[in-house]
Write a structure and sequence with these properties.
By secondary structure, the chain is an alpha/beta fold. Helix content is 34%, strand content 25%. It contains 13 helices and 13 strands. It has a 7-stranded mixed sheet, with helices on both faces. A 6-stranded antiparallel sheet has the order 3-2-1-6-5-4, covered by helices on one side. Strand 1 and strand 2 form a beta hairpin. The termini are far apart. The C terminus is likely disordered.
């Protein structure tokens, strides 16, 4: 391939059409893409400092164009109209500009498209409380949340307010009305956005990510006052999620916070993406915790480790362990047993499930 001037639009079209999820641009290297979870080097030429400066000035919003080259970190959105949207992270590496780009398609997939359990839509029918989607970076949290919200918009009459940094998926008002607010443009920060959202007649508030104590406190208050709060956390399982929520507060406040969490948390869904047998796509494996009276009691008594056993032993309330989810993917022929072993957090339990010996949680994915 031969190129004269690097065209960001041409490159992004190439990347999307190649099936990439992310792109990486840095000085002194050719562009890289991430496809099916793997990093691949493209045949584009090595990028210069001028190439990156030109790209940044071309795609940055007008409101930040004059200052972006003096910043160290910044997120914003870019769109090739009629083709796709992109979440751009501008950052510096050894003093030089770099871009990390996430592709945000116009079409929002359904839970069925994503091979996720339909119970996620049922969980989101709560009238109040908090539902958290958790997992590491790149595990599909944003897409899962978008699918849940789009289903709510299509099938119920609600007012949904989203507070994001930046706004990724853009929702169309259908049976529900949607108000989308971006940090730094429409509201100062997450905590402030939640505070004023309570005065805007919401039924559901989506918080792009809970990052700090102020946002968590505001989210708990919103849930306590009769609203359904949806959000994401960078945690790997249900107990880690509960620990993260409680430990973000000062030790003197944690007993009160545990009571708040016990009363407001409705469910946590921890997901990770695992490779298909052919390594040509990825499927989500989930751990689902539904907050039952027993779970509430464990939270209040700070006996969080016991919740692992409860999820394993419970055959109702739509709870499911990560190992059960992995086993279902194996039984459907979607992933290999070795791939399941690579992602389990309890190898012995998984081996029992794979042998059909263990008869614990069996949540339906239908």
């Amino acid at each position: 391939m031969e190129f004269e001037i690097f065209s960001i639009n041409e490159f992004l079209r190439f990347a999307v059409e190649a099936g990439a999820s992310d792109e990486h641009l840095k000085v002194g290297n050719p562009p890289f893409i991430r496809k099916n979870g793997f990093i691949e080097k493209t045949e584009y030429p090595i990028l210069s400092r001028q190439d990156l400066d030109d790209v940044i000035l071309e795609i940055a919003p007008t409101s930040i164009r004059d200052e972006i080259l003096t910043r160290c970190d910044l997120d914003f959105m870019y769109e090739i109209r009629g083709f796709s949207k992109f979440r751009i992270n501008y950052n510096r590496q050894l003093g030089l500009p770099a871009l990390t780009i996430r592709n945000i398609p116009y079409q929002i997939p359904t839970l069925s498209d994503l091979n996720l359990p339909s119970i996620l839509n049922t969980i989101a029918t709560h009238q109040n409380g908090i539902v958290l989607i958790t997992g590491p970076t790149g595990s599909g949290k944003s897409t899962t949340i978008a699918s849940i919200i789009d289903n709510i918009i299509s099938n119920t009459a609600k007012h949904i307010i989203t507070i994001e940094d930046p706004v990724e998926y853009v929702f169309r008002c259908k049976n529900s009305i949607v108000s989308q607010r971006q940090i730094g443009i429409d509201t100062a920060d997450f905590a402030t956005g939640i505070k004023y959202a309570l005065r805007q007649d919401p039924d559901i508030i989506f918080i792009g990510e809970i990052r700090d104590k102020e946002t968590m406190a505001a989210a708990l208050k919103a849930a306590e006052t009769g609203h359904l709060v949806l959000s994401t956390l960078h945690t790997n399982d249900a107990v880690q999620t509960l620990n993260r929520i409680v430990n973000i507060f000062n030790e003197s406040d944690r007993a009160v916070v545990r009571k708040q969490v016990a009363e407001t948390l409705r469910a946590t869904i921890a997901q990770k993406l695992v490779y298909s047998k052919e390594n040509d796509k990825r499927y989500p494996a989930c751990e689902i915790l539904v907050v039952t009276p027993s779970v509430k009691d464990y939270i209040v008594r700070d006996n969080l480790e016991a919740i692992y056993g409860l999820i394993e032993e419970t055959s109702y309330d739509s709870m499911i362990t990560l190992n059960t989810s992995l086993t279902k993917l194996v039984s459907k022929g979607l992933i290999s047993e070795d791939e399941a072993r690579e992602h389990t957090n309890d190898r012995n339990d998984l081996e029992k499930l794979l042998r059909g010996v263990y008869t614990g949680t069996r949540a339906s994915y239908e």
